[in-house]
Amino acid sequence: MRNLIIICLLYCFSSQSFARGDEAGNGGGLAEHNFSFAYQKIEDFIALCLVSRCGLTQKEEKVLSTISNSLKEEKKTSQQLVFLSNKKEKGAFVLDGMIKIAKTGDLVGDRIYINTDLLYPKERDGERTPISMATAVAILVHEFGHHHGIEDHQFLDKLGSKVKALIQNEFVQVPYNIFKKLDHALTIDYWPVKKPSSLILIFKNEVVDLSKRLSRFLVCSDEQIASLYRIANIHWKYGEDQLERKLEGQSFLLCQDGKWHQKSFSLDFRVILQKSSEDDFMFDPDSLDFHWE
Asked: pTM score, two decimals?
């Protein structure tokens, strides 16, 4: 019955998934999709660092602010992220005698090329682990810095690492299966930046953002949509029926009275076991249900 809930979600929310390679050029694995989501949310991650300062020097803060202010213009470039193999492109990522994980030009809007050969580094046990979303953010900060005339790689590495360290503290991951820690639910809290929390599900090569789906249900007692919400304390709950799963959590809604209101929620799902294989499951589209606890 492994990974049932996430499989269900992937089929149900394909419109919110970053599974398609052309979302970010031509990549298709989890590391590529981590880059895609990091690119989409880079404004919020940088804003969080600037508001919290995250140990920035005066120069770092100035550069990061400049990057932030140019992101709207940056994203006018269609498919700004492009994934290429250094091996297949015959050394396209070799700079100063070293193979780089990314490269770009020196103008705002220039495409950022990501070296797919380095996206799944080997761990000590020999397993390959995809580069994390936080690491992808650090790399993107570095590359965007080049668009503003910054050529000091050590400076940009340090700047990216500070943003990475801060947002890692805001990531809360709940593995679906303790034996497959890459499959998990994830919340990202951007507070004190006034942005709603993100609720994300990770499964194999997929990154599924449920935030917009969830936001439709997060209404205050007067039936008004909350002006802001935060999500916390997510966890999996398993029923007596092994084909049913729940993702439970708490929401904090900022309502019209200017106060935060706490409400608990759950997302319920059911899957159907196909006769062809014990490991082959389908999502029951009529089973999805959101309700307050």
From this structure: 0.77
